[in-house]
Amino acid sequence: MSAAIEENAPRAGEAETQERTLLEAYGPELDEYGVVHRDEAGRVCIQTAPAIKRSSMVPEPWVTNPFVRGWRRVQGQMHKSRAERLARPPEPRWKIAGRLRRLTLLVAVVAQTAVATWYMKAVLPYQGGQILEIAILLLFALLFCWVSAGFWTALMGFLQLLMGRDRYSISATVAEGVPISAGTRTALVMPICNEDVGRVFAGLRATYESVARAGVLDKFDFFILSDSYKPDNCVQEQRAWVELCKTVEGFGRIHYRRRRRRVKRKSGNIDDFCRRWGGEYDYMVVLDADSVMSGECLKRLVVLMNANPEAGIIQSAPRASGMDSLYARVQQFATRVYGPLFTAGLHFWQLGESHYWGHNAIIRLEPFIQHCALAPLPGKGSFAGAILSHDFVEAALMRRAGWGVWIAYDLPGSYEELPPNLLDELQRDQRWCQGNLMNFRLFLIKGLHPVHRAVFLTGVMSYLSAPLWFLFLALSTALLAVHTLTEPQYFVTPHQLFPIWPQWHPEEAIALFSTTAVLLFLPKILSVLLVWVKGARGYAGSGKLLWSMLLEVLFSMLLAPIRMLFHTRFVVAAFLGWKVQWKSPARANNETPWREAFRRHGLQTLLGVCWGLLVAWLNPNFLWWMIPILASLLLAIPLSVMSSRVSLGRGAFDDGLFCIPEETSPPRELHDTARYNEENQARSAPGFMDALTDPAVNALARAFATGRHLPGHPLIETARTQLVDEVLETHPERLPDPKRMRLLDDPEVLARVHRALAQPAAQARAA
């Protein structure tokens, strides 16, 4: 060993000093629960996760082109998928009921759309006889079909909730109070990435304590799966894990792991858990960073899984709560009042071929490991590579393998948070837009159930409807310009014997507009009626509920054109291959500054001014039809800023507006989450520099470090020496995050940098 290596080798007694520092700073529980260990080189380490017992989870490559599949089949090169090789059990009764229900839905939507399109044809001046009018009719039919499907979904959800539980409901298969079967093991996994550490661990603590109160703590293990790559977050997560385990005596039951290689984002993080520990558990409950679930809800999900051996995924219906801005309160109110109708309606039409939303759901691990690993999409460009919206695809693969995917729409005790302002929500929507457009490449994958093909289609339409709506409005304006600025055409086809006179039918236009408004707003009225029937006390009373609904309708009407333009841009950006920023969503009550609002909404406001002036010049009477669109665009900037204000949100709540039961009478889990979060935010949090200078934080960071190469190898020691020299010469505060993460991953480098920085500080204190 060279002199430089000997100088930087671990000093005698350093491990004992580090262990003593850990126990003094973080308590003797680390020793009592056997958390502190020594690695092969005698260095101190902390066991944050159980021993690895690997399972094989291999993705099957996608063949998205049906012609390629056919050619390979002719050549004998197309092999059956794992799902195709499985024996198919007899069809349950719910599948027959599901097919009949979906056929009814299809007939209702098509018939309603056909009638509406016929009326729209009569509204146009040439009754669909021109190319521009034909394009308008096609767009109208597509958009009306989308609205009609939502209407029938909400209507059936209303009837189902009014009459009671559906006979095919997954929740009806087991009576209340049934215990979890002996030997059943479930893992709660929470993937996180650069999240608000205080909020994450507050929600996890509330969930853990609720499980303990339910008396089923021995049936669950908790896994925090970190993909964080910001050094300050990583250091904070380490201390938060130790403090949480100490507080709830969760050592050996609450586990933590941070990946060094961030492959496939969230889905890759979950796959990594499945490969390491998935074989040890029957089920997995996936949580988001803002998820909170009650012990009774989790217990019920496990019982339902045990009672339904053909179920692969059971999705709960999370209720939004916890944010204070006006925007978040309006959205929380909307999802709480209107959401149950749509969720129950989805269940009515889909039954065991339903959605999976990626969180607050229980998954049967054996088929998930075997069938739900996701290969990257082949090819190049923005629609290739790692799948972003993994949840819909995993549900489709689970159903392809013969397992049911259910929504427990009537199961209470599942909670989440919503974005605090419009811009944060749109940032999330851009990721979802990109993911849904990518997923549509799987529409023709062999073996998928028609319902999940429809799910991929509706996922695309949820964003593609925006540019279609924008194009419909643009073509309508163009039609107005053509008939204002050009001479009427009475003979539009060759050899036409009789002229076609342009006709305007305002009464039919009003009737069509009214019908469309009924389809859009009747579900909201039915939601309020349902709340009135069941009791509106949690919503501050019947009168306040009605006022809240009316204000929410106005708010949603103003936001719709703004979202339309943003979603149109997202779709165009996806097709042009623009890069999507993948950031963790905001968990705090972020308020939108005026400067940011001008930057993000300025062009929309300018478009509204120009569009309004153009229509006024062409035909001022047409402005009445454009008021909802133009008013939204002109008010975009102040609406975005003011709706993000926390003071307005709290003021509305104090006045009894946008109240929901989760806030007027919060369940203990949400109350505890808010209290623990306040405590965590008030406490000073360590950062990266503390891991270098503070003895206690440094000792913990070294114990968490995973880059544990054995000392003595010349190349490794040379690299360590170079890194230490670079850190000390550059100064750690100016290091980029990748270099900081290299420090946190290597206990030897952390120790050497700490010694180099601590000695001058100690000498200064002595002087």
UniProtKB/TrEMBL annotation:
Residue stretches spanning the membrane: 103-122, 134-159, 454-482, 509-533, 545-566, 622-641
Residues in Glycosyltransferase 2-like domain copies: 188-369
Enzyme class, broadest EC rank: transferase
Places the protein is found: Cell inner membrane; Cell membrane
Biochemical pathway: Glycan metabolism; osmoregulated periplasmic glucan (OPG) biosynthesis
Keywords from the UniProt entry: Cell inner membrane, Cell membrane, Glycosyltransferase, Membrane, Transferase, Transmembrane, Transmembrane helix
Superkingdom of source: Bacteria
GO CC terms, sorted: plasma membrane
UniProt keyword Cell cycle, yes or no: no
GO molecular function: hexosyltransferase activity
Documented EC number(s): 2.4.1.-
GO BP annotations, alphabetical order: glucan biosynthetic process
Main location (coarse class): membrane
Membrane topology: Multi-pass membrane protein
InterPro entries, per database record: Glucans_biosynth_gluTrFase_H, Glyco_trans_2-like, Glycosyltr_2/OpgH_subfam, Nucleotide-diphossugar_trans
Function: Involved in the biosynthesis of osmoregulated periplasmic glucans (OPGs).
Annotated family: Belongs to the glycosyltransferase 2 family. OpgH subfamily.
Protein name: Glucans biosynthesis glucosyltransferase H
Organism field: Pigmentiphaga kullae
Lineage of the species this protein comes from: Bacteria, Pseudomonadati, Pseudomonadota, Betaproteobacteria, Burkholderiales
Gene, per the UniProt record: opgH
